[in-house]
Design a protein that fits this description.
Blueprint lengths: L4 E2 L6 E7 H7 L5 H10 L8 E5 L5 E9 L9 H7 L3 E7 L6 H11 L15 E4 L6 H19 L7 H14 L3 E6 L3 H4 L2 H7 L9 E7 L6 E6 L1 E5 L8 H4 L7 H15 L5 E11 L11 E2 L7 E2 L7 H13 L5 E6 L3 H7 L4 E4 L3 H13 L4 E3 L17 E2 L9 H10 L6 E6 L3 E2 L9 E2 L4 H11 L2
Parallel strand pairs: 1-6, 2-4, 2-5, 5-6, 9-11, 9-14, 10-11, 13-17, 14-18, 15-16
Antiparallel strand pairs: 3-4, 7-8, 8-11, 12-13, 15-18, 19-20
Helix pairs in contact: 3-4, 4-5, 5-10, 6-10, 8-11, 10-15, 13-15
């Protein structure tokens, strides 16, 4: 993605980033023909407004883009700008003082993302930004590249993104930064102590056998941070099979693993002073004679028995074993990311990610930082009054809540808390998808929460 940023600004078309006040100041100074063009474009400096000003010979002379009238300009609105511009080279000629080059570059790179692995499209050339070598550009490129990794993984269909491919990418990420990795596969999961991972994935074809991927990086003397990512390469629902409409997007059910790997890549590339552990249970929830059944009671790494009320609530099962493993690493902070429940979307929609934690200070820090970096998150309650809804009559707990609970995302978080390590723990129920196309946010995979998490980790462990 770095090809979207260039150093040479000599022939670049200038872009003026204007709020309403700046637009009002500028308007009286413009020639009448430019005023007319701006008026026809409806440009007033409102967020997302754009006016293209032609020059001689039909060339584009300059661009005006509206930043709105918020006290702090929202840099991520520039994602929409890069997606609406014609191919060519551009430079920022005018910008609000609150925006720095790193914010602009990051938004430009995120907005310029395209997934073109399978579809041939006419190449009209890139939309490139000439930007001076300001502080933060390298980190902006690094963050955008990690987000692109997550989006590429989620966009890739399950026939090319099975558990074996998730493993290969995880090992590539680990090797690129000198991390130490190990993988436990298939029947070896049982003696290794991952019975829930095995149970969920055992019905898949042997080439797509379940596996537990783990790698570690950093100085062991630094605080341990554990990332856990749900890696369900495809979710049929198991014997409680999904309808076709519910299965259509289940290639993205490994979004938690993709996001955990992307966040790990940021942490390692950024050189944060932590001892990083990444845990990825990678499975396919398939259907065969060996599939787990509704009513089965399964052991777990934690020692708790789990009654399977619904085979389509499989993500929390593999996360349970992974969180139990996380507890063995004496973490200072554990973060799990998962495309876990449809209930999270009912509560907050596709754009806002709910997160759960019992740590009030951690929640406040994350909420503040998520707003600053424009990566929307919202804390949800770990409401103890619903805990009895996952009690089982014949096991320690069950994987689907009683109907009276209704709050499916909260119930899933309460289930995971039974397996989570002591100390600070964050659970994020992500969607990882843009369901509607918008300039800068094309329909398809979206990287969610990880920019905020990285920014929070930088503050927490500096």
């Amino acid at each position: 993605m770095s090809e979207l940023l260039i150093a040479d600004a000599d022939a670049a078309t200038p872009i003026h980033l204007l709020g309403r006040a700046a637009c009002d100041t500028l308007a009286p100074t413009l020639p009448d023909d430019i005023k007319a063009i701006i008026a026809r474009a409806g440009f007033s400096g409102a967020a997302g407004d754009m006016a293209l000003i032609p020059g001689s010979g039909g060339k584009l002379a300059r661009v005006y883009f509206g930043m709105g009238d918020a006290p702090i300009p929202r840099a991520m609105s520039l994602r929409g700008l890069v997606a609406r511009l014609p191919a060519g080279d551009y430079r920022i000629a005018e910008r609000p003082a609150e925006l720095d080059g790193g914010q602009i570059a990051q938004a430009w790179l995120l907005g310029g993302y395209r997934f073109s692995r399978y579809k041939q499209v006419r190449d009209v050339g890139p939309v490139r930004l000439a930007i001076p070598d300001e502080a933060g550009l390298g980190e902006a490129s690094m963050i955008a590249a990690a987000c692109a990794l997550a989006r590429d993984m989620v966009n890739t269909p399950a026939n090319d993104m099975g558990p074996e491919r998730i493993e290969a990418i995880a090992l590539e990420v680990a090797a690129a930064h000198g991390a130490q990795a190990q993988v436990t596969r298939g029947e070896d999961l049982l003696p290794a102590g991952y019975p829930l991972v095995h149970a969920v994935g055992r019905a898949a074809d042997t080439a797509r056998a379940p596996r537990f991927i783990e790698f570690a990086w950093g100085d062991p003397r630094h605080p341990a941070v554990v990332l856990v990512g749900k890696g369900v390469a495809f979710d049929s629902g198991g014997l409680d099979i999904k309808p076709s409409t519910g299965m259509r997007l289940m290639k993205k059910d490994m979004g938690g693993a993709a996001h955990a790997l992307a966040l790990a890549q940021m942490i390692m590339a950024g050189g944060l002073p932590v001892r990083l552990h990444v845990l990825i249970p990678a499975v396919e929830n398939a259907i065969s004679g060996g599939a787990m059944r509704p009513g089965d009671i399964l052991p777990s790494r934690k020692g708790l028995s789990v009654e399977v009320g619904n085979t389509d609530a499989e993500g929390r099962l593999i996360l349970a074993d992974a969180l139990a493993r996380a507890g063995e690493l004496s973490p200072a902070l554990t973060i799990d990311l998962a495309t876990l429940t449809g209930a999270a979307r009912v509560a907050l929609g596709p754009d806002v990610v709910p997160f759960y934690t019992d740590d009030d200070a951690l929640a406040a820090d994350l909420a503040r930082i998520s707003d600053a970096v424009e990566d929307p998150l919202w804390r949800m309650p770990m409401w103890q009054g619903y805990a009895s809804g996952i009690d089982s009559d014949i096991a320690d707990l069950k994987n689907d809540p009683d109907a009276w609970v209704q709050a499916g995302s909260i119930a899933a978080a309460l289930f995971l808390r039974r397996f989570a390590p002591e100390g600070a723990w964050l659970h994020l129920d992500i969607y990882a998808w843009n369901p509607r196309p918008r300039p800068g946010w094309p329909q398809g995979a979206e990287a969610q929460a990880i920019r905020a998490l990285y920014a929070m980790l930088k503050v927490r462990y500096r």
